[in-house]
Amino acid sequence: MLDGFWTRIDRMGDRPALLLPFRPAITYSELADRVASLSGALGTSKKLVAIEAAQSEHSIIAYLAAFAGGHAVALLPPEDGMAWSSFMERFAPEIVYRREGRRWRLMEANHSSSDAAVHPDLALMLVTSGSTGSGKAVRLSKTAVAANAEQIAGYLGLHAGDIGALVLPLHYSYGLSVLNSHLAVGAAVWMPGTSVLEPTFLDDFRAARCTNFAGVPHSYELLEQRGFREQSYPDLRFMTVAGGRMEPETVRRYHGWLQGEGQRFFAMYGQTEATARIAYVPPEHLPGSADRIGVAVPGGELWLVDDEGMRITGSDIAGELVYRGPNVMLGYAETRQDLAGGADIEELRTGDLATHDKNGLFRITGRLRRMSKIGGVRLGHDALETALAVKGITAAVVGNDQQLLVAFAGPQAEEDVREALAVLAGIGLPQVRAIATKELPRLTNGKIDYEQLRLRMEEEPARAKATVISLFREVFFPQQVSPQDSFAELGGDSLRYLELTVGLERLLGTVPDGWEKMSVGALSARSHSTSAQRTIASDILLKSIAILLVVLHHATPWPIPGGAGTMLVLCGYGLARFQSRALFAGDLRRFLRPLGLVLWPYYLVIFGFSIAWGAMPWASVFLVGNLGFAQPERHEMLPYLYWFVEAFAQLLLLWGALFVVPPVRRFAGKDPFRFGMLLLALAVLAHFVIPALWPVGQRQIFTLAWVLHLAVFGWCTAFANSAGRRLAVIAAGCVVMPLMAYTGGNWAGSWILYSMQVPVLAVLLYLPRVRLPAPLAAVLVSIATASYHIYLLHRILPEALFDTGNPETFTAPLPVAISVASGLVTGILTYRLQRRMMLGHHLWKGLRQLGRHLRHIPLSQQVTLLGSGTTLAHDQHGSRVSS
Q1: How far is CA 91 from CA 72, 83, 380, 831, in A?
Q2: Is residue 854, in this structure, part of any structural domain at all?
Q3: Which residues, at least 6 apart from 779, have a Cβ–Cβ distance to it below 8 Å?
């Protein structure tokens, strides 16, 4: 029996094998026991076992158990229904191991497939065709898997004391190779289960004492965004890159940085057809060979052949790159019957054009086959054309490693074909272009003229004319949008509502009343209004006024602390209008989806403060800084200013938790207004009872219990669908708001805060839309859409520019004007940057420009800019932060 790494895990003792968040390390001894137990459940006859390749101990144990039992393993991407459906249909695995709900289940899938035997040498199947769902699977033997693990461990110098960071998917050969090579030497693997963009990733990476990091080129772009090289990692020994071409300058940058720390950088090259790794650049050849893929891995051989298949011996002569080694695949498979075959090839024709220099190092110069590699996903152009043909689209696809271009002949719209290809390829819309032609360009022999299409690809694309349906498709992508759909039917939320309001204002001039219930087709049929006035929704007007009040309140000594209260009313109003369908359906995942868009800018702010302070404000990280047990002065939480974000997150979690209970969900769905009024009574009671049970002094004004009733008022307002119910809301407001003002300190600020909310409720109830001059409406809509980002950032520049400990700063006209203007502009620009990031438009270019600007600012000012000013960290009860 082959002595692969999976046969040796029981010899590694109690050394750590898998490091996962929020649980003790899984030792090799524990891993061996669990592998043996699951292996017994798989049986003794050879089977094909399909495993959900999640970043989970369960996936790894199942993978090792299947290997130990002599079975063939197929690692499939988690939550990819197309890939699973295609694989199940074509390869009929006998056993499936994947999650159902929150549980991992081992299920027998096909009894009839036992007639189609699996070859004794077949051990692993990996699908490499991107997301077309119909591509070939690579067949790999145990020998190949074991050999490549030993090859990688050898040239990297891995040993039992290493801890590798596994942030790549396990169904991706590069990610799997990280696991295999570490297990081969008894080393440990740390699996954070999160992206490198997570605010805590760098701290977690350091705390896990990782000795190496493996990433694709995009991973390093994300690390640059996080300032990875600005920190130190005492345990780090080396870093590796593969999965696509990294810019030589980036290779040199990381090599130089690591070399200065006594560490190494490995630029590597590979293909799934060679299990994972084919070549690497020995660090001693850097930085001079930063544009090379290097030499063959130990035990392998690389050479070049010309068009006739003859070996090229001279240097700097291009030819197809060929590899031979023990890690080469058995061959491809397209159906279950293909699994019965043995090795089809002895050497691998990579499809890449390359040259080699006088030192024997190889350099990739292009692609022989029609293939792109975008975001680490290999996309065969022929496979994509076939998939489009299945959809009735006659097309030709060309591309590079940045973008695909599809030319098509037919009645389809360009935007429809563009979206179809983006979905099939599993990439974003910005990486796809579509052009309609009367007929596809062809050569004299009748074959498609791909060279002409490549020339078209180099042309600057014409800017498409924006339309209502293209706006909806952009905002809701990848959801399908037809002319018959409406915003409400598509399940739109408050964030999309604001984005579409801005877009429709631009396209139509005036947004019609009730547009969210109108079909896309009906909106498209409306002519552009040239009126000097525009009508906007009253909640948008109120949101812009509310955030202006917040900014003014924090920039002046005026006691106008009602802005945040109004924003809470609007939060409840938005939950009712845009999220209630998800709540009534019990779809918490859809209900909580907007929370992610809210939290990641907030966590970037936390990250900035953690850099400035040299400490992580953990209470804010866990969204509990407003509960009274942490202090910003001790850097345990963000300044009190940010209480609103934590209260909002807690509000969503509380609301979601209520609707988890079926009787509550049924009652609320039957009569949401009555449910809201009952909840309002409970919220008013909580306002008085909870502070008595959990006294936190003046900081109680930041707690959810103190302000919950405001959000509930917003919910009730949205469902007040009769004159009697609208009067009931106003009457309740007239009773509750003065009560809150009197018991909340009975001072001018509290009376302004709560008195303001009664007219807010009246506007929402009786004045759903407001007519304003067009320029003013445009400004207010821009402020409203960026209100959250304004809230997050409006005090950053004033704290950096002015002495906020001096009372004159809040009365002198110039500082006040700069504080207000900078707060608004910073928030609006940041919101627009986030939108561009979400759409994938020139993110890296923008960050590089930002970096160039920051280099001209002294380091001390940069630190201040990130929030080290002292005023924000002081308790300002009843003055600037109780808004």
Answers
A1: 12, 12, 21, 47
A2: no
A3: none
Q: What is the pLDDT of residues 192-227, one digit of tens each?
A: 988 887 888 999 999 999 999 999 988 898 898 888
Predicted confidence (pLDDT) per residue in 596-650, tens digit:
778 888 999 999 989 989 999 999 999 998 888 888 888 999 988 888 899 999 9
In this structure, the answer to whether residues 514 and 568 fall within a common structural domain is no
Helix (H/G/I), strand (E/B), else coil: 397: strand
- Residue 508 pairs in a beta bridge with none
Q: Is residue 314 part of a domain?
A: yes
The CATH number for 452's domain is 3.30.300.30
Find tokens 């690390």 and name the residue: 223
Please list, residue by residue across 754-788, b when 16 or more beta carbons sit within 10 angstroms of its beta carbon and e when fewer do: bebbbebbebbbeeeebebebeebbebbbbbbbbb
**What residue numbers bound the domain in which 579 lies?**
540-772
Quick one: how many helices (H) and strands (E) in the chain?
A: 31, 28
Residue 465 corresponds to which tokens in the numbers above? 């004319």
Question: In Å, what is the CA distance from 585 to each residue of 56, 185, 582, 661, 715?
Answer: 29, 50, 5, 12, 17
180, 190, 189, 187: which is closest to 5 by C-alpha? 180
As given in the structure block, the two tokens for residue 398 are 């060309």
Residues in CB range of 181: below 8 A, 6 or more apart: 148, 149, 150, 152, 153, 156, 158, 164
Could you tell me if 322 and 261 are in contact, meaning their C-beta atoms sit under 8 angstroms apart? Answer: no
Those residues of the chain that have pLDDT short of 70 are 1-2, 111-115, 129-135, 369, 375-378, 443-447, 458-466, 477-479, 488, 491, 493-495, 498, 509-510, 513-514, 527-534, 558-560, 804-810, 835-883
User: Closest by alpha carbon to 784, among 544, 501, 534, 535?
Assistant: 544
Q: Which of 772, 791, 823 is the last residue of a domain?
A: 772
Tokens coding 227: 């300032």
Pairing of strands 212-215, 163-165: parallel
Domain final position from 365, 391, 417: 365
Q: Which residues pair with 74 in a beta bridge?
A: 50, 125
C-alpha closest to that of 655 among 882, 489, 754, 647: 647
* DSSP label of 486: B
Q: Give CA–CA dist 696/719, Å, rounded.
A: 34
- Give yes or no for a contact between 387 and 424, defined as CB atoms under 8 angstroms apart: yes
Give the DSSP per-residue string, 225-264: HTTGGGS--TT--EEEE-SSPPPHHHHHHHHHHHHHTT-E
How far is the C-alpha of 597 from the C-alpha of 822, rounded, in Å? 23
Joined together, the tokens standing for residue 805 give 């400990």
- Provide the terminal-to-terminal Cα distance of the chain, rounded to the nearest Å: 71
Judge whether 779 lies within some domain: no
Q: Are the C-beta atoms of 511 and 532 separated by less than 8 Å?
A: no
Residue 599, token pair as written in the block: 């939290």
Do 323 and 397 lie in a common domain? no
Same domain, 382 and 454: yes
Q: Is the CB of residue 710 less than 8 Å from the CB of residue 572? A: yes
* Helices within 840-879 (DSSP H only): 843-854, 859-863
Unique residue bearing structure tokens 């011996």 = 313
- Residue 746 within any structural domain of the chain: yes
Same domain, 568 and 505: no
Q: Across-strand partners of 434?
A: 406
